[in-house]
Design a protein that fits this description.
By secondary structure, the protein is α/β, with parallel strands linked by helices. It contains 4 helices and 6 strands. A 6-stranded parallel sheet has the order 3-2-1-4-5-6, with helices on both faces. α3 (142-155) runs parallel beside α4. The model is unreliable at 1-5 (pLDDT under 50). Bound molecules: pyrazine-2-carboxylic acid (VGL) and zinc ion. The site of pyrazine-2-carboxylic acid has 8 residues, from α3.
Length: 198
């Protein structure tokens, strides 16, 4: 966070979206993001701030059936990860999501992958119904699901703030995380810093 007291200016219409902070994307998981565990603490601070302000919290999760098309075993790009019902698909133990978190499952059918939390999940409608106009986004991974989610959110008309300390990148190619952040900014996302969130 840019300051010790972020989120002092949270207001009605703001919502937090935590993207794919699941065991398989953390060190020790099957598709670990380097330093993926470092996002948990700043995300917990964000969660606490949104709770205190009684603002809605959404959390997406990759929720694949066995044999999913994104798995290398099925001709896809990734090791087996986030299989529905497995421990790897669970949200990270240390992530303090409140019981009223709106959970958005994605990429739940065998033949279709989805990086974006907006892809065939009804998320945009849920956000609009909750009166959300301004989305604060963090999670995993910066260069895949966070990027796809942020770009779709912007395209759907939501203002997006990137919680840059609350995200981590796969970095399949070195610099992918930085490039993803640049791409999200070019599309209209704003990086959290003093003056934006307090
Ligand atoms: C993700 C690769 C495969 C992500 C999901 O959440 O960023 N990356 N499936
Ligand atoms: Zn996946």
């Amino acid at each position: 966070m840019a300051t010790d007291t972020p989120f002092t200016e949270l207001q009605a219409g703001d919502a937090l979206l935590v993207v794919d902070v699941q065991n398989d994307f953390l060190p020790g998981g099957s598709l670990p993001v380097a330093n993926g565990d470092r996002v948990i603490e700043p995300l917990n601070r964000a969660i606490a701030a949104f709770r205190a302000a009684r603002l809605p919290i959404f959390a997406s999760r990759d929720m694949h059936p066995p044999g999913h098309c994104s798995f290398q075993s099925a001709g896809g790009a990734w090791p087996v990860h986030c299989v529905a019902g497995s421990r790897g698909a669970d949200f990270a133990d240390g992530l303090c999501l409140p019981p009223d978190t709106v959970v958005i499952s994605k990429a739940t059918t065998v033949a279709r992958d989805a990086y974006s939390a907006f892809d065939a999940t009804g998320l945009a409608k849920r956000l609009r119904e909750a009166g959300v106009v301004h989305l604060f986004v963090g999670g995993l991974a910066t260069d895949y699901c966070v990027k796809a989610t942020v770009l779709d959110g912007l395209a759907a008309g939501f203002a997006v703030v990137l919680l840059s300390e609350s995200m981590a990148a796969v970095e399949h190619k070195l610099g992918d995380g930085r490039r993803a952040i640049e791409e999200m900014e070019e599309a209209g996302a704003v990086i959290d810093c003093a003056g934006v969130t307090g």
